[in-house]
Design a protein that fits this description.
heterodimer; A: alpha/beta; Rossmann fold; six-stranded mixed beta sheet; 9 strands; 27% strand; globular; B: mainly alpha; 74% helix
């Protein structure tokens, strides 16, 4: 694989959260404590010197216990968090598959929300207009698309979100534990769609607690523990070590 | 190595300017947000966007009913005086309040996806401008009804609006940055803006203030900006050079400070919202 295929590069990335000892919700309290020099923080390193390279067309799975830093890693790649130290570089647009409800406005119709969600993911209006019929069809929402979103069931929400994010086809797609939305049929459809990305120019980062899902979809798996990268490699090997 | 990356966390460069570039990239989202604010605010109401026009009119009616006898001699066509003041003031109070609320609404989004963080404040101002434009319709109708002249100095209006918008954006950004760190800022702002309203001659003539408070009018930035908006429409002349110079300085300083504070804190915002 040549370096030309490099899509995500993390070099020595660390992220520190500063957690105040007590929550300081008001200005007054903050001022009082500041005057008394009593603002104490606890540092918490969510990622420690993680270096990782991901190439075009790869589906990379990320596993680890709760609190191992998986979501923080995704946030750094999604540009939500600036690393405390180290360097993150991306070649291409990133779009996370958003959790239920994020990026939607319940008062707007399904159609208006497709535009809202699509532009939040960084795409332009015309781009979305050309794809809207396909998106609606994939989500299976033809009859409801002009009804306000607040009338949708949670399954319909999720289907719409998945359809938008995956149809628009970013160069880098981030999926955090949400391939389990919708009914069995829709899950199967989602799986197929992620699989269809293979060899099609989209790179996928997938976090899941379902090792079975990871094994079925990913070419490589990264295992995080206490913010450190334990190992990266082929799914069966890494999963076997993780289980051990 | 590859071609230049689309994103490089180590890229230096002023956040001050980078934010502008990112805003331009997300201009389609900006446009949608500007429209959606009205759509969602009025979707369930029978009169819909008409409320944008009715709200200042009804306020004006109440204030006229309450105060017109008191100020009758100082202020001919008192309803025109009040309505011009209210249109300008509502723009300021609504956009700043809305900017804070939408940033907090967008918080769940900002934790998951990158967006230029100033987009919420900027779209609030954009929406405020649309509403301000709409509320000029009832103003003109009111002037015609009362026989108030439509002065040629209306040409000055865009300049006044531009300066108001710069000032409001600066304040909105500054307050949003604060609101992210302290939850009580939104409540405090509600009280502060109410007090500010009464301390600014929006519904009363500034002449009723005792002489020893005149200095204060000159340090109240909202007063100069309000004059800029109202004088050309109500009195029919362009405000004096001192007022204009003060208003320009206030708008520029507010915008620069607000933008600088907000963009230099914007990376921390993702940790906090």
């Amino acid at each position: 694989m040549t370096d030309n295929d490099l899509v995500i590069s993390l070099a020595d990335v660390s992220v520190r959260y500063r957690v105040p000892h007590e929550r300081i919700p008001t200005i007054k309290e903050y001022a009082i404590r500041w005057l008394r020099r009593r603002i104490r923080y606890q540092d918490f390193w969510a990622l420690r010197s993680v270096s990782l390279e991901v190439h075009r067309n790869e589906v990379l799975g990320i596993i680890g216990a709760n609190g191992a830093g998986k979501s923080t890693l995704l946030k750094v790649v999604a540009r939500v968090l600036q690393p405390t130290s180290g360097r993150v570089r991306l070649w291409g647009r990133v779009a996370p598959l958003l959790e239920l409800g994020a990026g939607f406005d319940p008062e707007l119709t399904g159609r208006e929300n497709i535009f809202l969600n699509g532009t939040i993911l960084g795409f332009c209006r015309n781009d979305i207009a050309g794809r809207i019929d396909r998106i609606v069809e994939f989500a299976g929402l033809e009859e409801f698309i002009d009804a306000p979103l607040r009338t949708y069931s949670s399954g319909m929400y999720a289907r719409l979100g998945f359809a938008v994010a995956t149809d628009i086809r970013p160069e880098i797609l981030i999926i955090d534990e949400i391939l389990s939305v919708g009914d069995a049929a829709f899950q199967e459809k989602s799986f197929d769609r992620v699989r269809s990305f293979l060899g099609d120019g989209t790179t996928v980062l997938l976090v899941s607690h379902s090792l079975d899902q990871i094994a079925r979809l990913c070419q490589r798996v990264a295992w995080l523990q206490h913010g450190e990268l334990v190992t990266v490699g082929p799914p069966d090997e890494v999963i076997a070590r993780y289980r051990a | 190595m590859n071609s230049t990356p689309t994103y490089d966390s180590a890229a230096r460069g002023a956040p001050f300017l980078r934010e502008l570039v990112e805003l331009a990239r997300f201009r389609d989202l900006l446009g949608l947000l500007v429209n959606n604010i009205n759509k969602t605010r009025y979707r369930r109401s029978a009169l819909g966007v008409l409320w944008t026009l009715l709200n200042p009119l009804l306020n004006m009616a109440v204030l006229t009913f309450a105060f017109s006898q008191i100020f009758k001699f100082d202020l001919p066509h008192y309803p025109v005086y009040v309505l011009t003041g209210l249109i300008a003031w509502n723009f300021f109070s609504q956009t700043t309040t809305y900017a804070m609320n939408t940033l907090i609404w967008g918080g769940s989004l900002l934790r998951r996806i990158y967006l230029p963080r100033s987009i919420f404040a900027v779209s609030s101002i954009g929406n405020g401008l649309v509403n301000l434009g709409l509320s000029l319709i009832p103003l003109v109708i009111l002037m015609l009804l009362l026989g108030h002249p439509l002065y040629a100095t209306w040409w000055f209006l865009p300049i006044a609006v531009l300066l108001w918008a710069m000032f409001a954006l600066g304040v909105a950004l500054f307050m949003s940055a604060l609101a992210v760190f302290f939850a009580d800022v939104v409540e405090m702002w509600g009280v502060a803006i109410q007090a500010w309203f009464f301390l600014t001659p929006v519904m009363y003539p500034k002449e009723i203030l005792p002489e020893r408070f005149i200095w204060y009018m000159n340090v109240n930035p909202a007063h100069n900006l309000l004059e800029l908006f109202r004088v050309p429409l109500y009195l029919g002349h362009v405000p004096g050079p001192n007022t204009i110079a003060a208003a320009v300085a206030e708008a520029v300083v507010a915008l620069l400070v607000g933008w600088w504070v907000f963009t230099s804190k914007s990376n921390e915002i993702a940790y906090r919202v």
